[in-house]
User: Which sequence fits this backbone?
């Protein structure tokens, strides 16, 4: 998938898809070692577009930054990139002032939650969905998340289940924790990623489109 947008100021490549008549947009934050071509995020994004959401999948690191493993876990830097993408959508694209949500996968869960917490200081994010991973890395920013937040974790991923349960307890927003039965860390079992996509679609329909409709 060739990038059709470049996110300033670094020119990070992104794939922005906008279905006709879309009312809200979802920006994806990928996990360690992944990017805008993440097959799991592409799968979820396709489901969201079918439901009428615009989607933005982007690389959060530059070509020069990617080889350094430390950069992939610099969730604060990556959250700043997510906020830059949000500003880009609201100033240079048809998304403009439509509601925006975040979907974070793996360590991208922390990236999405930090960005949502920081955005609450300004014009806010409408909803957040996190798939597995490390929401706990958001640390103190968990307290500042105002957007309705759904944490999704597989029942077979015991470490992530513990970390998500801990993070869930620290959130003070409208929230839900969904445990997908029989799913592991990557939701590779048959039908499990479809369950994640449907849960995300339902959450964004309820909370993001609610914001779009006033």
Assistant:
């Amino acid at each position: 998938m060739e990038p059709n947008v470049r996110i300033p100021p670094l020119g990070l490549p992104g794939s922005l898809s906008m279905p006709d008549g879309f009312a809200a947009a979802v920006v994806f934050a990928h996990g360690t070692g992944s990017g805008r071509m993440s097959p799991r995020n592409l799968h979820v994004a396709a489901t969201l577009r079918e439901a009428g959401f615009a989607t933005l999948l982007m690389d959060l690191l530059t070509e020069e930054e990617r080889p350094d493993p430390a950069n992939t876990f610099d969730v604060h830097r990556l959250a700043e990139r997510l906020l830059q993408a949000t500003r880009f959508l609201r100033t240079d694209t048809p998304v403009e002032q439509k509601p925006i949500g975040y979907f974070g996968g793996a360590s991208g869960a922390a990236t999405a939650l930090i960005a949502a917490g920081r955005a609450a200081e300004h014009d806010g994010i409408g909803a957040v969905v996190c798939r597995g991973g490390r929401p706990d890395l958001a640390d103190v920013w968990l307290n500042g998340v105002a957007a309705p937040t759904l944490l999704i974790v597989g029942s077979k991923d015991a470490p992530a289940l513990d970390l998500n349960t801990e993070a869930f307890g620290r959130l003070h927003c409208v929230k839900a924790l969904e445990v997908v039965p029989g799913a592991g860390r990557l939701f590779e079992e048959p039908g499990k990623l479809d369950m994640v996509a449907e849960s995300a679609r339902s959450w964004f329909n309820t909370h993001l489109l609610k914001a779009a409709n006033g």
